[in-house]
Specification:
Shape: globular
Number of helices: 16
Radius of gyration: 22 Å
Helix content: 40-55%
Order of helices and strands: EHEHEHEHEHEHEHHHEEHEHEHEHEHHH
Strand order of the largest sheet: 8-9-7-10-6-11-12-13
Number of strands: 13
Length: 410
């Protein structure tokens, strides 16, 4: 690695001894250069604005601003910069909060030199790739390219499709929604998060050579080439698919923190990371829900589905996940059934935003053929409702971007 390609690092910790120890550890790696040291979160934000480093090593507990908040602000202002959080807290909840804030990695204090430098090299490579993409995009714009480089989009959105009741069409919606979100400028990847009995590959009639375990087992050393080798390219579309393991017992090998890190990594290359999920709240499903930008919650007019949706919303409230992140969807709506979406919305204190009409023949035929119905018949009312859902998700994403920008200006 040449001097120009050195990984530029900022160390953030409110304890002077810790800062110096980290700096001494890193001076033996000729490919890493410590370009700044901050004593707290506010100072780190200012340094990042001035230096725009590749990697920030961030303590999680500081007096002026906690590392989670500082990470979120740094990733907002410097999206290519990667953050590695150090903490004496080993609970999974802290790691999930860190990943939700945009951290690239989470290491326990004190990290070993090998563990720390490996994490820095992985994060540094990703940062430098993103800086190069940004530079290429800027150069293209300067030369009148006329379009921004959407393929180089950073910080794509994680959309989790979930229902606490089985058999309500979660996989059908996830597969069709992925294709509805996909466009020439916005690429999507569909991840089968039903790790024991996932059917995404079956719904798409695709033979599986690799699966999610091939990525989670290497989550600390992923690159774009590995992603491309493992994902399935569906048909003539540009939709990428990460299949579930072929046997139920293999699901136990996918750790929740690995699954969360994979989803966070995928968002660097795809505008939309759509996650199909199991009904049961496994650790991996919970980790996906906690880091999701948006959650598509599915119910039907069946009483058990409504009851379970209500229980899930209560759980969301208890977990302090904002309901603004939930898009409530009624699938298989039948006008002949007296239970209306409006009644359910009032009862559960959450409006149903999308209504998908019942058409068992259309859906069953699509599943048996392995061709999602949004590709076969775009003008069908059921397809139109999926495209409406995709558009509403885009609106919510843009609205949140606007709120973030406004907050940053205050």
């Amino acid at each position: 690695m040449s001097t120009e390609e050195k990984i530029r690092v900022i160390i953030v910790d409110d304890i002077a001894e810790t800062r110096e120890n980290l700096k001494r550890l890193l001076q033996f790696d000729l490919n890493i250069e410590v370009v700044g040291i901050a004593r707290g979160g506010q100072e780190a934000l200012e340094l990042c604005r001035q230096i725009n480093p590749d990697v920030v090593i961030m303590d999680i507990n500081m007096s002026d601003m906690d590392g989670i908040t500082a990470t979120e602000l740094i990733r907002r202002n410097n999206p290519a910069t990667q953050v590695i959080i150090l903490s004496i807290q080993s609970e999974a909840s802290y790691m999930r909060k860190a990943m939700l804030a945009g951290a690239r990695d989470y290491l326990a204090k004190p990290p070993s030199i090998d563990e720390l430098t490996t994490a820095i090299h992985q994060a540094g490579r990703l940062a430098q790739e993103e800086f190069k993409k940004d530079a290429a995009s800027a150069a293209a714009a300067a030369h009148g390219a006329g379009q921004t480089a959407k393929a180089a989009l950073v910080n794509g959105k994680i959309i989790v499709v979930y229902s606490p009741k089985g058999g309500v069409g979660t996989t059908t919606i996830a597969t069709n929604l992925s294709l509805a979100l996909q466009s020439e400028t916005e690429k999507a990847v569909l991840v089968d998060g039903n790790l024991q009995f996932g059917d995404v590959a079956v719904f798409l009639n695709e033979k599986v050579k690799h699966n999610v375990l091939d990525l989670t087992s290497r989550v600390e050393e992923l690159d774009r080439e590995v992603i491309d080798n493992v994902t399935i390219q569906y048909g003539n579309t540009e939709l990428s698919v990460v299949a579930a393991p072929p046997r139920p017992e293999m699901a136990e090998k996918v750790m929740a923190d690995q699954f969360a890190k994979l989803l966070q990594y995928l968002r660097n290359f795809y505008s939309f990371v759509v996650v199909d999920t199991a009904t049961y709240l496994t650790d991996s499903v919970q980790s996906a829900i906690e880091i999701a930008d948006l959650i598509v919650l599915i119910t039907t007019q069946e009483i058990p589905a409504i009851k379970n949706a209500n229980a899930f919303l209560d759980l969301i409230d208890a977990s302090q996940i904002p309901r603004e992140r939930i898009l409530f969807v009624m699938n298989r709506f039948d006008k002949r059934i007296p239970i209306t979406p409006e009644q359910i919305g009032r009862r559960l204190h959450h409006e149903i935003s999308i209504i998908i009409p019942v058409d068992e023949r259309l859906v069953t035929t699509a599943i048996n053929r392995g061709i999602p119905f949004v590709l076969e018949n775009k003008v069908h009312p059921t397809s139109k409702s999926i495209y409406s859902m995709a558009e509403l998700l885009r609106q919510k994403i843009n609205q949140r971007k606007g709120e973030t920008i406004s907050a940053g200006r205050q």
